[in-house]
Every structure is written in structure tokens, then in C-alpha cells.
Amino acid sequence: MSEPTQKSLGGWARDVSESARSLWEGMSVTLSYMFKKPITTQYPDRMPLPVVHTLPTRYRGFLEVDMDTCTACQACERACPIDVINIDLIRGDGVTTPKTAMERFDIDIGKCMFCGLCVEPCPTGSIQHTREFEGAAMAFDNLTLRFVPDPAKPYPAYKPPKGADAYPRKPLGEIVRKLIREWDAPAPAFPQRDGQTPRPGPAEVSHVPR
Amino acid sequence: MSAAATAISLSLSTIAKTSNPRSPEQLVDGLLRARGIEASSPLSTLAMVAALLAIAFIVVNCAAIAAGIFSWLERRIAARMQSRVGPNRVGPAGFFQWIADAVKLLLKEDLIPEGANVHLFRAAPYFMMVGFACTFVALPFSHALIAADLGVGVFYLLAVTAFVVVGVLASGWSSNSKWSLFGSIRSAAQIVSYEIPAGMALLVPVLLAGTLSTQGIIRAQGGWPWQWFVFHDPAALAAFFIYFISALAEGNRAPFDLPEAESELVAGYNTEYSGMRFSYFFLVEWGNMWVMSALATSVFLGGWQLPGLDAARFDALTGGAAIGLEIVSLALFALKTMSLVFVIMWLRWTLPRLRVDQLMSLCWKYLVPVSFAGALFVAGWMLVVRAAPVLDLLMRGALTALGALVVTLFVRRTLSNVRDVGDRLDVRGNW
């Protein structure tokens, strides 16, 4: 703003030539960028190899539970610092019904912070991080991974064989990929909690001290 | 009623007689005559009105589609200039992005802020649209493609482009928002100021051609660059740049986008708009790029003139050759206009925004004096040329050579800019 109000003809001409020169240089620079390859890369789905396969093996993606090797010990539920995992157990007589079975094994991925603390205490390696990371949901409720699909059919707890140091496990990611596909399901017309087992609200969430 | 219809038909037939023989009115008139219907009958009036409505429909839709495509083009070009990729998901190279955006905007809620002047707020986008669509009436697309070759073409174009300011002011004032109001007042000041250099710069080709009609100005030029008005004399060259700068400012394009300076005013006069009304503002902004580039092409860069083909010889052509060359001339005109549109986009991603005082100083201290001096110079130069026609050829040749030299040097500079940083040319990567 310190421009003098009066300007000589020479100063006027210098202004014009200076703007012409700066235009010349500036436009040449921007045009040169237009003819260079962009620095940014495409979204991973345009890569030759699916990006999931290019991630490191210890990548912490969505959690996955192989219910066939879950011992229902609830160690992961206790380990979770933000109560993402919810496991409901039912006790049976051990003859007609299994002694311990899981009515519910829910992991709220919408809340999960991918810290990996649940994976560490798992005795059988049933709960694992997969390399899956993409999932768009039509409704917030869809983000909950329900590893027991039907509470009427509880999953019996796994009894690890004595002295075993390795446990059979389905290929990592196979289960969760199926569940993610359901996230595309449209949202219910009115948001509602599932009727049979009302999900605990924030006040109800508590761990039974053992 | 019948008297009014007769009056309309009479006025239409007079227009038809006085304008270019290839105009649409003449076409309808000829068709009616071929069926034995007199120009004075009410049926003729009806047919005329229907034809005009059809032309208006086509013209407005062309404008809207051009604006939509420019929105995609601008985003892609901007992205490449910033080393990004830009929208490339919808259709080949993301081409249908503009349709997706339009559909999204059409489906959005049309909000009217509390305390707004409802009627003005609703009407403002239509003011913009009308002012914008009216410009397409007098824009020549090719040798025969023009909605109406008005005798006052350039004057008419200047008048209706200024109509946009009504919409800008109405939208800003009725929004009941300080940002909108600031934006619209800036825009009004800017458009009104830059009308003067734009008008004076357009006076130069008008002087050279001796007519205000856009087709007439194009016919006064030729197909080769040295026959264009831009290379006629130094003042015409300056007038081209002055018109281009002023048109940028009138269209609120960067670096003169103060009315919608997003870092200061959120979005300027259209801050409070949403949905379809919002999309109208952007349609006008992008469509205006075509309008100003087409006008600059017509009056300075030879319009649709084909190299080596005289306009009079073009008129005499008939049949397939005429239609084929018509398409070629349309393509040539579109090519010239698109290159200017590209320059507008290019400037937007090169230059920083001017301050208000810089904007006014550029207009009143630089453009206005030069445009006045240029108009006087051209008038004098025409007298000189009349006395010594060889000077005209020399000047045109020298200026065309200068233009070619500047373009060559610029390309070399750009290529060296690419190579100096160890990069190489890559246009095809990551589309």
C-alpha cells in the first residue's frame, strides 16, 4: 500500500513489463506441471495387484474371529480398553447341550481403534487382525461384526487338545470378507435395535469381575 | 389481437429481410413461402414464434452443456497443474462427473435463509441465467450457425453481459448475509469498471470492420493469422489483451475473482444458495468462459474463417461441400474458442488474486488509458494504411512473425522447465 499516488511514465512502463515478465515465467511453470506426471497416486483399487495383498502381514485391519477355535474365555473382551467386543455365554448341562456356548460374539468395528490388545491374550489365536481395511456401510449398525449370526444357535466353546501348540484356523480374512459384504445392506427404515438381545447402552456396559 | 399478430409478423419479416440471408428467420420464411403461406398470415407468425422457441431451447441447452463440460475440464486441468489426477471415476477420464454433479445439485434441498428477501432471492439466479443465455443469441458458431446476426451484435453482447450484475447484486442483497453482500458489491464495482476498457477494446475491431455485427466483423477478417484483427496493428494486439483481461474481470474469473474470494468471503454472492439455484451460478460462471472466448475469437482471431477460403466463396458453395465446410468451420471456431478457454483456466491456476485497490488501479491506470490510446491509434493507422497499403502488409507480417516467435520461445521455456528438474513430458500418465 506504500505505492506513490503519482507515477512517472517510466515507472508505469516498468510495471507493465514486469507484469508481462512474471506472467511469462509463471504461466510457463504451471504449463510445465500440466505436462508432467502427477505426483499423487490413484486410489488402491486401480493398482495391478489388489492392495490388500500388498500390505504387510502384520497390518492391523478389521478384527476376525474364527469361532471354530474360540474357547469362550472372554480374554479379548476383558482386554479391550473401549468395550468393543461383546460376548454372551450360556451354560448347558454338558450332555444334551454344550457346557459353555456363545450366544453372541459382536465386535463393533465402528468403535474399534485397532490397538491389537485383544489379539495378544487369545490362547488359540482365534481373534486376529486381518489385512482388510475397506468397508463402506449403509447404516452405522451394519458396522458391527456378528460372529454368531443367529443367537438361537449358540456356538459351542472350543476345547483345545492337550499339549497342542498349534490350532487349526480358517484362512485369515475369509470370514470377515463375507461379513463386510453385508455392510452394503440398506439401513432399516427406522433405526432399531435388534429385538431379542437389546444391545447394552453405555451405562449398561460393564464387565463382570471374575 | 390480429392487429398485434400482424405487427409481430411484419416486424419479423422485416428482420428476416434485413439480416443475413442464412439466418434462421429467413430459413423459416423460405419454408413457409415454399408452402404458399404468405408472411402476413397468422400461421406464419405462429411458425416464426415456434421456430424462435426451438432456437432458444437449443441455444440454452448448448450453453448449459458447454458449462457442464467446462466444469469437468477445469477440474482436470487444475489437477494436472497441481500434480494431481482430478476426478476420473465417472465415465472415461471422469468425463461424466459434470452430470453426476448436476444430478446431485438438482436433488439437494433448496434452502432460503431466514430474513432473506424471498422473491428476490429466488429470482436472482434467473437474472444471471437470462443475461447469460441472451449472449448466445449473437454469438456466431460457424459460417451459418448463428441464432440471430444482429446489426448491433457487439453492442448487444456488451449490454447483456452486464445484465449479470443485476443477478449478482440481487443475490447478494437478498441473502441477508454480509459475505454475500460484500461479494455482490465487489462484483458490481468490478463489472461496471471493466465495462469501459472492454468496450473500448472492442471498438478497435468494430473500427477496422466498419460494422457492429459479429458475422460482419468475422467476414472482414480472413482465415490466415495475418488476416486476423489481432495482428492488424500493435493497438489491435493490445486491444485483444485488454479485452481478454477485462472479460476475465467481468466474468469474475481468477485472478479477478474477488466477488467469490473463498479465503475472505466463504463463496461471495452465492454463499447462501444451495441445490439447483446454486448450480445456476456456477453454470453462468463456466458458461461465461465460452461466451468471452467466443467473442474474443470472433472479433480478434478470425472466428470461423477457413484459411484459403474467402467468405464470399463460402457463401456461393452449395450441397455437400457447403455442409462439410460448415462443420469444419464450426470445428475451427470451437478449437480457437477452447484454446482461449484453456488459457482462462490456466491463468486461474497461475496467478494469485488481486487486491481490490490493485484491481481498480489496473483498470483505471493501465487498461483504460491504453484502450483509449489504442482506439485513437487504430483510427489514425487506418488513414495511414489507406494512403500506403504496403504498410498494412508489412505490419501484419511483422506482428504475425512476432506472435510466432513468442509462442516458440514460450514452448521452449516450458520444455526447459520440464527438463531442468529432471522430469520428462508425460501427458498420458494417470488419466
Notes on the protein architecture:
The complex is a heterodimer of chains A (210) and B (431). Chain A has helices at residues 9-34, 51-54, 75-79, 174-181, and strands at residues 63-65, 85-91, 100-108, 127-129, 144-146, 155-156. With 210 residues, chain A is an alpha+beta fold. Chain A has two domains: 9-39; 52-184, Alpha-Beta Plaits. In chain A, strands 2, 3, 5 and 6 form a four-stranded antiparallel β-sheet that branches. The model of chain A is unreliable at 196-210 (pLDDT under 50). The longest helix of chain B has 40 residues, at 42-81. Chain B has helices spanning 2-18, 24-34, 42-81, 97-107, 118-135, 153-161, 164-174, 178-209, 214-219, 234-250, 262-265, 275-300, 311-316, 319-348, 356-387, 389-420. Chain B is globular, with a radius of gyration of 23 Å.
> H/E series of chain A, N to C?
HHEHEEEEEH
- The N- and C-terminal alpha carbons of chain A lie at a distance of 74 Å
Instruction: Give me the secondary-structure category of chain B.
Output: mainly alpha
Q: Classify the oligomer.
A: heterodimer
Helix content of chain A: 10-25%
The SSE order of chain B reads: HHHHHHHHHHHHHHHH
Proportion of residues in extended strands of chain A: 5-15%
The figure for the number of domains of chain A is 2
Average pLDDT, all residues of chain A = 80
What's the short story on this structure?
The complex is a heterodimer of chains A (210) and B (431). Chain A has 210 residues and is of the alpha+beta class.
Features:
heterodimer, A: about 210 residues, alpha+beta, Alpha-Beta Plaits, 2 domains, four-stranded antiparallel β-sheet, two-stranded antiparallel ribbon, 6 strands, elongated, B: about 425 residues, mainly alpha, 16 helices, about 0% strand, globular, disordered N terminus
Give the topology, please.
The complex is a heterodimer of chains A (210) and B (431).
Chain A: H1 9-34, H2 51-54, E1 63-65, H3 75-79, E2 85-91, E3 100-108, E4 127-129, E5 144-146, E6 155-156, H4 174-181
Antiparallel strand pairs in A: 1-4, 2-3, 3-5, 3-6
Chain B: H1 2-18, H2 24-34, H3 42-81, H4 97-107, H5 118-135, H6 153-161, H7 164-174, H8 178-209, H9 214-219, H10 234-250, H11 262-265, H12 275-300, H13 311-316, H14 319-348, H15 356-387, H16 389-420
Helix pairs in contact in B: 1-2, 1-3, 2-3, 3-4, 3-12, 3-14, 4-12, 5-6, 5-7, 5-12, 7-8, 8-10, 8-15, 10-12, 10-15, 12-14, 15-16
